[in-house]
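Protocol step 4 of 6.
Sequence for DUF502 domain-containing protein (Rheinheimera maricola) entered exactly as in the expression construct, tag removed. Do not edit the line below.
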Amino acid sequence: MRIIVKSLLTGLAIVLPLIITIELLRWLLQLVETSLAPLFQLALPASWYLPGMAILGFMLLCIVIGYSTRWSGFNWLWQLPGKIMLKLPGTSQIYGMLQDIIELMSGKNFADGSVVMVKLPGTEIELIGIITKQGGQTNDRMSSLMQDEQLAVFIPMAYNVGGYTIVVPRSCTRNLDMKPAEALQLTLSAGLGSNKAPGKTQ
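Step 5 output, structure tokens:
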């Protein structure tokens, strides 16, 4: 009986992430297709439209928008809707939360070389964190609260989109050769993922 239960749990661990990922992707693709397909059908003859063209058009649009942000004028234009959303009552919290989650998971606002191991004073315990601010930076609200030799470090929580921001002396940290996105993935999964160390093939 124990072997059956163990095999069931092992099978679920393999199958469920696959099913959930596929279903999320299917839901997202279906949402894009059903939302944009009517626009393509209005612009094109009915015989020209093929299923999936809306998804392809959406991806091309995202590429164009992302590339155009290289110029400050276009970047300001694309940032404008988000700034408006952040000022509207009721939508600012939702939009801001979704934006923060996406940026957190992508490691967008974290610079390379900012992953550190933080040692808790008086203990041998260390936590993986990502430097978000440094003391002494001008015109920065968070930095103005810190001393020059202090760092603000984000400590992500396992299996939860969240974490803590702690302010520690630079001497309590040591740098890790890891990209911020890799550190987030590693800590959010509590280190239980199958990610291999750099340079390891097996």
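Step 6, annotate. The mean pLDDT is 79.
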